[in-house]
Amino acid sequence: MNRRVKVVLVLVGLAVALAVGLAAIIETDEEAIERVTNSCRNAFLERDAEAILAHLTTDAVYVQRTREEPLSSEVKRRLEQDRRRVDNVSLSLREIEVDGDDARATWRVMVRLDRTEGFPMFRFDARVDYRREADGWKIRRAELASP
């Protein structure tokens, strides 16, 4: 094999390695949305309202049946109400659709309560809308849906 062929093969190998390496470190929209959602889950378990609110748009809303209110109010209410009851929250992504700077995901949420509360576990689906802002993906709407 002559020197020119070796140089070309090395350059092709480096280009492939660079492309694979970049793909591994570049976060997709779907991955970024999952990261934001999991950050909110972790902050909920740590009772850190400020960390959750950092992931919401300023006009984020919470919808349950016919009731709609600011999502920030619901977050604060839940953290106060569920102070000692929630033992763990598991999230499972069921579906995600990204359309430019908007996205919608459906999550299966499983909540495990402290056993002293009587009902140790319940689940529901949540539809969450996201909006890409200058500092990343933010939650703009959360709606309970039947499982």
Q: Which fold name is given in CATH as the topology?
A: Nuclear Transport Factor 2, Chain: A
How much of the sequence lies in strands comes to: 35-45%
Structural class: alpha+beta
Count of helical regions: 4
Q: Total strand count, please?
A: 6
What integer is the average pLDDT? 83
Q: Kindly provide the name of the CATH class.
A: Alpha Beta
Basic shape: elongated
Low-confidence stretches: none
Strand order of the largest sheet: 2-1-6-5-4-3
Keywords:
single chain; 147 residues; alpha+beta; Nuclear Transport Factor 2, Chain: A; six-stranded mixed sheet; 4 helices; 6 strands; 38% helix; 42% strand
Structure in words:
The protein is built from four helices and six strands; from the N terminus they run αααββαββββ. It has helices spanning about 5-25, 30-45, 50-55, 70-80, and strands spanning about 55-65, 65-70, 85-100, 100-115, 120-135, 135-145. The protein is α+β, with helices and mostly antiparallel strands and about 150 residues long. A hairpin with a 7-residue loop joins strand 4 (about 100-115) and strand 5. The model has no long low-confidence stretch (mean pLDDT about 85). The N and C termini lie far apart (about 65 Å).
